[in-house]
Structure to design on (256 residues):
């Protein structure tokens, strides 16, 4: 099922998870919802820059289909290679040549005499950077268990450590920053730093007192009513508590 968000200036999405319902809330659904959340924010604060915070769920860290990644690249040229089956070509990258930043295409041009549109392969990409050693490199170390501290032990490791590959952001962060806002992620395993957990807790507490029902439409209406019953002042207090806890955690980590 393809998720659609109603243009009601409300970024809330009611999603009935399950194989025979709305399916599962995937990364693509999240991007659609966040895009609408930005529309809502910009409609209410057109001159402000938004800060959008997320936990470290896998769906939040998923990269765009054309994102840079060294995980599956073939060593040599390949006629049909794509990072994802049926997906787009991997985006171009750059490399430093002295003081110059050189744009680099990862695919041969479509009018190449022998390999039109082929993926170049890791070896040629590294050669174009001027980093290919005389003795050559394997595609990757056995089991991809590289020697600690080594950055040029294999093709894959060398690519992993290049600036453009290191700087590759998640699809979510790219969406938010492309619209001129800020994206950040909470530390892993610290749910207390996410103030929305307090908001959810308060809503769940209210839901426990709603009349029992087996009608899913009534359940949905009860959920909405409980979410909307939380006063804005109470939510703002959760934000203040979040900021205080964040400072405490930061002090603890800084001073061991």
């Amino acid at each position: 099922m393809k998720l659609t968000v109603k243009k009601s200036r409300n970024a809330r999405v009611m999603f009935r998870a399950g194989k025979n319902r709305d399916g599962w809330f995937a990364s693509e659904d999240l991007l659609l919802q966040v895009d609408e959340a930005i529309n809502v924010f910009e409609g209410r604060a057109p001159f402000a820059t938004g800060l959008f915070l997320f936990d470290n769920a896998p769906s939040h860290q998923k990269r765009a289909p054309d994102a840079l990644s060294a995980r599956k690249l073939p060593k040599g040229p390949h006629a049909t290679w794509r990072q994802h089956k049926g997906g787009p070509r991997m985006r171009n990258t750059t490399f430093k040549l002295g003081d110059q930043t050189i744009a680099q295409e990862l695919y041969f041009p479509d009018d190449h005499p022998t390999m039109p549109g082929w993926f170049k392969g890791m070896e040629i990409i590294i050669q174009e950077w001027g980093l290919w050693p005389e003795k050559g490199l394997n595609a990757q170390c056995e089991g991809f268990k590289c020697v600690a501290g080594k950055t040029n032990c294999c093709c894959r490791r060398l690519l992993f450590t290049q600036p453009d590959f290191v700087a590759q952001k998640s699809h979510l962060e790219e969406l938010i920053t492309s619209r001129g806002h800020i994206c950040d992620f909470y530390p892993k395993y610290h749910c207390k730093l996410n103030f929305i957990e307090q908001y959810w807790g308060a809503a769940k507490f209210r839901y426990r007192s709603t009349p029992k029902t087996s009608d899913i439409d009534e359940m949905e209406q009860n959920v909405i009513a409980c979410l909307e019953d939380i006063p804005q002042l109470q939510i703002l207090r959760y934000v203040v508590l979040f900021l205080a806890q964040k400072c405490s955690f930061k002090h603890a980590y800084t001073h061991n």
